[in-house]
Amino acid sequence: QVQLVESGGGLVQAGGSLRLSCAASGRTFSRAAMGWFRQAPGKEREFVAGIAWSGVITDYADSVKGRFTISRENAKNLMYLQMNSLKPEDTATYYCALEPAESWGTVYARARAYEYWGQGTQVTVSS
After folding, report:
1. Are 83 and 16 in contact, with CB atoms under 8 Å apart?
2. CB neighbourhood size of 53 (10 A)
């Protein structure tokens, strides 16, 4: 089974930065798409960013475009989310996800498209 573990969350002031990491272990898949989602208490889980196996094709929610950058290092089974200019509305639990579809350039923006999920890491942005 694939295990995904997020790290890098914490408490920061508005305008600050954080870099989230997602490490995959156990069984791995080739050409797997990955993504980041977030969920605040009482809110539905929402798409943040997605990245295809190639690492070139990416997708971002409008709310984070220009502030967040998604990347991956396939050889190390790692994915990152660099978050800059953080806002209080970015406060949420952030989850990484993996879809083992064997596609070089496919990215998914729907939570239902992903098969594996991490436990989440908390990001809190204060005013």
Report:
1. no
2. 21
